[in-house]
Design brief:
By secondary structure, the chain is an alpha+beta fold. The protein has helices at residues 25-34, 51-74, 109-123, 129-140, and strands at 80-84, 90-96, 101-107. Helices cover 40% and strands 13% of the residues. The radius of gyration is 18 Å and the shape is globular.
Length: 151
């Protein structure tokens, strides 16, 4: 008698076992950073079995941590600096005096836009139009993705 492997094969993109295909990963990153509870692991269990979605979830957690640190550092003037390249990438450097440390985060264009968008929401500030448009365009792509049916 053959035993079944405990590891499940990942579903090819676009196929599912009763659920809708996986959402756009960039859009999912934006959602997991801005509203992490919207895509819970319990409700979207099959989705989170995909290795690339697991990496994306960890990436979103790191971005949320960065946002928390940037909001805290924003209260201390001069403790944070940002450098942006022409292609939209950003590097944040800020001091964490309570830990006697310096944190540096190098982000791609979408990650930088999500961080700026979240910072504007957290501090009731303004977000640049380009960052806002990039994040809102990603979030709009989630409209086609629906939750799997409850079983």
């Amino acid at each position: 008698m053959r035993r079944r492997s405990s590891k499940r094969e990942p579903l090819p993109r676009g196929e599912s076992d009763g659920a809708v295909a996986a959402p756009d990963l960039e859009a999912l990153l934006c959602a997991l950073v801005l509203v992490p509870d919207a895509y819970s692991r319990n409700r979207f269990f099959r989705l989170y079995q995909e290795p690339e979605v697991q990496r994306l979830r960890r990436r979103a957690a790191r971005l949320r941590s960065l946002i928390r640190d940037l909001v805290a550092a924003g209260a201390r003037e001069g403790s944070c600096s940002e450098t942006r390249t022409r292609d939209g990438r950003a590097t944040f450097v800020f001091e964490l005096p309570e830990l006697n440390a310096r944190r540096r985060a190098m982000l791609d264009a979408l990650e930088a836009s999500v961080v700026h968008y979240a910072l504007a929401r957290a501090t009731e500030g303004e977000c640049e139009a380009g960052d806002r448009a990039r994040v809102e365009a990603c979030l709009a792509r989630l409209a086609a993705f629906r939750a799997p049916p409850d079983t």
